[in-house]
Design goal:
With 242 residues, this protein is of the alpha/beta class. The chain has 6 helices and 13 strands. The mean pLDDT is 92.
Length: 242
C-alpha cells in the first residue's frame, strides 16, 4: 500500500484535503476514489486512509485509525557531514534516512567542494529534506530526520542536544574503534566526518577541543559518505543486532 508523508495533523474520522505535495504524489500514483493508502505526519505512528475525491489539482482523503507503530533506531544518531560533491550528498541523505539517522547537518569545511550560501543553500536544504521524506515513505519510517541548514564548521555542532556523545571520524593514530568508544552510552550520538580529503588538522583540533572523541572504522580508508553511513549503521541498530 502506498505510504505518503502528510505534514498536517491527522485525526481519525476526518475528511481532509491533502497538501499540494501529497496530492501530487497520489495523482502520480494514479490512485482513485476508494483506493487505500497510508499517511504519516512525522509526529509518530501512521494512519490508514482512503481516497475520497479527486479533483484536477486536489485530493481529499478519509483519515482512518492511527497505528502507533515505530520503526526508529535504538538510539538517536546525528550526522555532521562535510558535504561530498555532486550527487553523493543526495545519496548520503537518502541512505541515512533509511538507516535511521535522527538528523543530518551539512557542513562547509575547508576542503568542501560544494560551496553553498544564501538562497542556493536554502534550496539545497529543501531539496535534501524532500529526499529524506521520500526515503521515509519508502522504508517505513514515520519520523522524518531533519536536514539542518548549511553551516560552517563549528556552527554545525553548536546545536547538539546536551549529553550527546561526540565522535570524530579520523585517521589520527590515537583514534579508538568506534564501537569501543560508544560502548556503554545508550543516549544520542553525533558523528562528525569530513568531505573528500577529510577535515584539516586545524578543524580536527577544534572538534577535539569541543569534546569530540577520535574514532576509526578500521584499517580500510573509506569514502567520506561511506564512512558516515557505516558509522550510522553500527551505532543506530548494531547494539541490538537488528
Amino acid at each position: 500500500m502506498p505510504r505518503i508523508h502528510c505534514p498536517v495533523p491527522l485525526v481519525p474520522g476526518e475528511c481532509i484535503d491533502l497538501p499540494a505535495g501529497a496530492a501530487r504524489h497520489v495523482q502520480v500514483l494514479r490512485l482513485q476514489p476508494g483506493d487505500g493508502l497510508t499517511l504519516f505526519d512525522g509526529r509518530g505512528g501512521e494512519h490508514a486512509a482512503t481516497v475520497a475525491r479527486m479533483g484536477r489539482s486536489t485530493v481529499a482523503v478519509d483519515v482512518g485509525a492511527h497505528d502507533p507503530v515505530e520503526r526508529e533506531a535504538a538510539r538517536p544518531v546525528h550526522l555532521l557531514v562535510g558535504m561530498p560533491a555532486n550527487e553523493r550528498m543526495d545519496w548520503l541523505v537518502e541512505k541515512a534516512a533509511e538507516l535511521g539517522a535522527a538528523g543530518i547537518a551539512p557542513l562547509l569545511t575547508a576542503r568542501t567542494v560544494l560551496r553553498l550560501a544564501g538562497e542556493r543553500a536554502e534550496k539545497k536544504q529543501a531539496h535534501w529534506q524532500a529526499v529524506a521524506v521520500a526515503a521515509c515513505e519508502q522504508c517505513g519510517r514515520n519520523r522524518v530526520p531533519a536536514v539542518e541548514p548549511v553551516r560552517a564548521g563549528a556552527e554545525g555542532w553548536a546545536h547538539l542536544p546536551p549529553g550527546t556523545l561526540r565522535l570524530l571520524l579520523t585517521l589520527r593514530p590515537d583514534s579508538r574503534p568506534l564501537a569501543e568508544a560508544a560502548a556503554g552510552h545508550a543516549g544520542a550520538v553525533a558523528v562528525l566526518g569530513g568531505p573528500e580529503g577529510g577535515l584539516t588538522p586545524q578543524e580536527e583540533d577544534a572538534a577535539l577541543a569541543a569534546g569530540f572523541r577520535p574514532v576509526t572504522l578500521g584499517a580500510r580508508v573509506l569514502r567520506s559518505e561511506t564512512a558516515q553511513l557505516a558509522a550510522l549503521a553500527l551505532l543506530a541498530d548494531g547494539a541490538r543486532g537488528r
